[in-house]
Amino acid sequence: MASLQVSGAGVGAAAFAAKGKASIGALRLPSTVIVGEVRPARRAFRGLVVRAATVVAPKYTTLKPLADRVLVKINSSEEKTTGGILLPTTAQSKPQGGEVVAVGEGRIIGDKKVDVSIQVGAQVVYSKYAGTEVELNDYNHLVLKEDDIIGILETGDVKDMKPLNDRVLIKVAEAEDKTPGGLLLTETTKEKPSIGTVVAVGPGSLDEEGKRSLLSVSAGSTVVYSKYAGSEFKGADGTNYIVLRVSDLMAVLS
């Protein structure tokens, strides 16, 4: 099954549907390799490259991740816009989330064995550029490290996302509608805000002894963050959110 990749940097705002499971769309640039079966590449559009995921031969029916890696079954791409317009395959955005179907046995840090903290069956969101895509049992999957998982979706709305490790979930402040002189700004001319309110924080990163280091910010803090960091999402009510590492926070406002 072919996977669509965009050459250059792609920035996508993911749409979350308020249905049982979240519907996540974003552009992603995974590294892909063809193993066992070579499929002819389709003619690419300008700026687009079409490649095949790693195809696992039918005689193999399971894939067991090693160490701190996880296997995620990728959510299907959206076939329609929010207005109901059918999208051709080339226009469908690549999903950035899926269901964990297998986890590794964990890793050794110092003298301590640290298990993978994500459970099989969890709905997760992952980094856009992480992992290796494989086609297993006619479904697209992604093999990636636990640290590439951004957060766990406990409901169908991003506002309830549980960030992992040293990441924080931030509700982005609304952009200014007017200039200081009173001129109205259009959506395209509004300056991208880099201030927001922390909604949730992860448990912290692991130190050299395998212990969690608590984060320096807490839910409710208003922070300034690096303008081009993190992964952006849109909540069910249209509110903008961003998930980034605590190291991308610049300051706390009070």
TrEMBL record:
<comment type="similarity">
    <text>Belongs to the GroES chaperonin family.</text>
</comment>
<dbReference type="InterPro" id="IPR020818">
    <property type="entry name" value="Chaperonin_GroES"/>
</dbReference>
<protein>
    <recommendedName>
        <fullName>20 kDa chaperonin, chloroplastic</fullName>
    </recommendedName>
</protein>
<dbReference type="GO" id="GO:0046914">
    <property type="term" value="F:transition metal ion binding"/>
</dbReference>
<dbReference type="GO" id="GO:0009507">
    <property type="term" value="C:chloroplast"/>
</dbReference>
<dbReference type="GO" id="GO:0051087">
    <property type="term" value="F:protein-folding chaperone binding"/>
</dbReference>
<dbReference type="GO" id="GO:0005739">
    <property type="term" value="C:mitochondrion"/>
</dbReference>
<dbReference type="Pfam" id="PF00166">
    <property type="entry name" value="Cpn10"/>
</dbReference>
<dbReference type="GO" id="GO:0044183">
    <property type="term" value="F:protein folding chaperone"/>
</dbReference>
<dbReference type="InterPro" id="IPR017416">
    <property type="entry name" value="Cpn20"/>
</dbReference>
<keyword id="KW-0143">Chaperone</keyword>
<dbReference type="GO" id="GO:0051082">
    <property type="term" value="F:unfolded protein binding"/>
</dbReference>
<dbReference type="InterPro" id="IPR037124">
    <property type="entry name" value="Chaperonin_GroES_sf"/>
</dbReference>
<dbReference type="GO" id="GO:0005524">
    <property type="term" value="F:ATP binding"/>
</dbReference>
<dbReference type="InterPro" id="IPR018369">
    <property type="entry name" value="Chaprnonin_Cpn10_CS"/>
</dbReference>
<dbReference type="InterPro" id="IPR011032">
    <property type="entry name" value="GroES-like_sf"/>
</dbReference>
